[in-house]
Amino acid sequence: MSLKEQLFADLKTAMKEKDTVRKDTVQLIRSGILQIEKDKKIELDEDGVLDVIAKQLKSRRDSLPEYEKSGRQDLIDKLNREIEILLGYLPEQLSEEEIQKIVEEAVAESGAASVKEMGKVMAIVTPKVKGRADNKVVGNLVRKMLQGK
């Protein structure tokens, strides 16, 4: 079953179970997919769908600190549930140790010696961790490694 089909099946299930958070989250993903397909006049493949989900996940993770500042526990709980749902559609996330190993290999491969060459390293690392790691975490690890050189 493709990811699009899985999303449609999950939407129907969420509607039957009256799970509004899951229904709303899946609808946002599906509308993001549809928007890109209409704008670019293409059919998104699995990688494209994963990109949409990853963007939704990043958006929610970026919003979380703001909700925590405002002290809205109800919104924080809802956002955490949405993050959990989105992570369910992405491939298994890499551990920090696994990301560290990939970053070390990329630094060695690129020959980067300073933070100014971070782009070279990220160009190698990003395709390897796509959808399986938060780019903010990857960027911080790359920066930390290059600053230590």
Would you give an account of this structure?
The chain is mainly α and 149 residues long. It has helices spanning 3-16, 20-40, 46-70, 73-89, 96-110, 118-129, 135-147. Helix 2 crosses helix 4 (73-89), helix 3 runs antiparallel to helix 4 (73-89) and helix 6 runs antiparallel to helix 7. The model has no long low-confidence stretch (mean pLDDT 92).
The general outline is globular
CATH superfamily grouping of the largest domain: Uncharacterised protein YqeY/AIM41, N-terminal domain
Largest sheet: none
Work out the strand percent. under 5%
Q: What is the alpha-carbon Rg in Å?
A: 18 Å
Number of domains: 2
Q: Uncertain spans, ≥5 residues at pLDDT below 50?
A: none
Query: Tell me, what is the CATH class of the largest domain?
Result: Mainly Alpha
Order of helices and strands: HHHHHHH
The mean pLDDT is 92
Distance between the termini: 46 Å
Q: Report the strand count.
A: 0
Instruction: Determine the number of helices (DSSP H or I, runs of at least 4 residues).
Output: 7
Topology-level CATH name of the largest domain: Hypothetical Protein Yqey, Chain: A, domain1
Assembly type of the shown chains?
single chain
Secondary-structure-based class equals mainly alpha
Helix content: over 70%
Task: Provide the CATH architecture of the largest domain.
Answer: Orthogonal Bundle
Strand and helix map with partners:
Layout: H1 3-16, H2 20-40, H3 46-70, H4 73-89, H5 96-110, H6 118-129, H7 135-147
Helix pairs in contact: 1-2, 2-3, 2-4, 3-4, 5-6, 5-7, 6-7
Protein name: GatB/YqeY domain-containing protein
Organism: Anaerotignum lactatifermentans DSM 14214
GO molecular function: carbon-nitrogen ligase activity, with glutamine as amido-N-donor
